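Field reference: sequence -> structure
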Amino acid sequence: MRALLFVLSLLTLAAMSAQAADLPSVKRALTSGSVENLPSLTMTGEAEESVKPDYAILSLNASDERPTAMAAAADNAREMQALLARLQKSGVSAADIQTGDLVVTPQYKERRLAKSEEVERVLVGYRASTAVRVQLQDLEAAPRLARQIVESDARLYSGLSFEIRDNQERLAALRDKALQAAVANAHHFAKVASVQLGDLLRVAPLSSGSRVGAETERSDPEGFAVPARAAEIRVRAAVTVTWELKSQAAECADDRPK
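Structure field:
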């Protein structure tokens, strides 16, 4: 608190000096929108809300390596057919399954040349892979399906996340609350420091997002972590607000009888 009072006092003195020396330049800075050289106070307000997730996203990736690109692509196609059939057999609607493009990439290994320090890259085969995104409406069934896939073929599993729908309206409401918190904090510190807030100079929303709480468990000996169940999602918004600080001379002028 003493450090804050000291900083605010310096800012107030700077404002007094600026007004006594060159008041028109300060006014020009205000009207032009340049606030870097103005004595100011910046506060950050935050707001957070916990909500239940609406659905889960199961991310999978089928990958196959073979000596030729054609063989790798053919094996990947067969693996994808088996995976999609398994998902639909588990009760997943075909409309909730999204498949990515088939990606085929050459695979190399390095080999040191005999009696030389040089290293050459040798083509050893090709890898074909296809990503799969599954939207699961049943939050209780989602972890079970993820564990089944990990236990049968851990190569396929990329992750399980929990999401919420229509988050923009919720974030807008949280930004309003964050702005109210910043205003309240600014008035509180200004009162404690015996300074007066002036014009509002800048309002800037910070990055907003969600943090998911989910209990995890080990599903195979290699240590793949799969959420055991979904927890509430904490949605957070933050806003920074900057005010001009009025100098003591300006305060006295404001207090003069009209």
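Note: The longest strand covers residues 225-246.
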